[in-house]
Design brief:
Order of helices and strands: EHEEHEHEHHEHHE
Bound molecules: nicotinamide-adenine-dinucleotide
Distance between the termini: 35 Å
Shape: globular
Number of domains: 1
CATH class: Alpha Beta
Number of helices: 7
Structural class: alpha/beta
Radius of gyration: 17 Å
Strand content: 15-25%
Length: 240
């Protein structure tokens, strides 16, 4: 028996990195997974299908939700994972850099939650997980835009934990806040920045995507049935 048998999940940004690992992990545990990504699904995995579109496109989000509802008649899990960085010191962040990061990371998460949360309420169950970052918890030089969005998705999850549980709906909303994780996103970070991070991390290394996906799996599953509004920090002890 898989831990997500018969569950239906939407995962944003499932073509690459942490999102891909979440999709593959969910599928292994018995879920039917739809990845919503601007890029095609570049891999094959039984029970993972790609649905192309951007989290910033509210029409595409509505079409995605209709598609999943029509096909499976339920949505048990939503993982808001799609995210990007455009790093610079505050005085060098352009309006475009600010808007792009806020649009995808924060408004994109809102778009999906607004489309799926009320449906889960009517259904009487569901689990939403927003992917934040250690940077949203403790700030970071050169990431004002990114940090603001990651703190923002924590605020969204806590609000949804309250709103979507109204009238006994029982929808749970939680956050996974990863530390630095070995994905393409890290390719833009110079080794001179990464080495001090490893040193400051109690476990002296970056995370593997699977170590983040394991936490998301737990919160998505019925094993976490009494956990809502929680921020699960998976950062190897970088921030204690
Ligand atoms: N890698 C890390 O160290 C790290 C640390 C903390 C948090 N995170 C967060 O984890 C999440 C995944 O990061 P990752 O490292 O796997 O990144 P990644 O760049 O490897 O993958 C991101 C995925 O999101 C997709 N995407 C980008 N814009 C999109 C949009 N508008 N609509 C739909 N999909 C879109 C991309 O196509 C890609 O498949 C992000 O929210 C990121 O902020 C990552």
């Amino acid at each position: 028996m898989g831990r997500l048998n018969d569950k239906v999940a939407i995962v944003t940004g499932g073509s690459n990195g942490i999102g891909r690992c979440i999709c593959e992990t969910f599928a292994r545990e018995g879920a039917k997974v739809v990845s919503f990504d601007v890029n095609e699904l570049p891999y094959e995995c039984v029970n993972v299908e790609g649905y192309k579109g951007s989290v910033t496109d509210r029409e595409a989000v509505a079409d995605l939700v209709s598609y999943v509802e029509d096909k499976y008649e339920k949505i048990d899990i939503l993982v808001n994972n799609a995210g990007i960085t455009r790093d610079a010191l505050t005085q060098k962040i352009t309006e475009e850099m600010w808007d792009l990061v806020v649009d995808i990371n924060l408004k994109g998460t809102f778009n999906l939650g607004q489309a799926v949360g009320p449906f889960m309420m009517e259904q009487g169950s569901g689990s939403i997980i927003n992917i934040a970052s250690v940077v949203g918890e403790y700030g970071n030089i050169g990431q004002a835009n990114y940090a603001a969005t990651k703190a923002g998705v924590i605020g969204l999850a806590k609000t949804w934990a309250k709103e979507f549980a109204r009238k006994g709906a029982g929808v749970r909303c939680n956050v996974v806040a990863p530390g630095y994780t070995m994905t393409d996103m890290m390719k833009t970070v110079p080794e001179t920045v990464l080495e001090p991070i490893r040193e400051k991390t109690m476990l002296r290394r970056l995370a593997e995507p699977q170590e983040i996906a394991n936490g998301v799996l737990f919160l998505a599953s019925d094993e976490a049935s009494y956990i809502t509004g929680h921020v699960l920090s998976i950062n190897g002890g970088l921030r204690l």
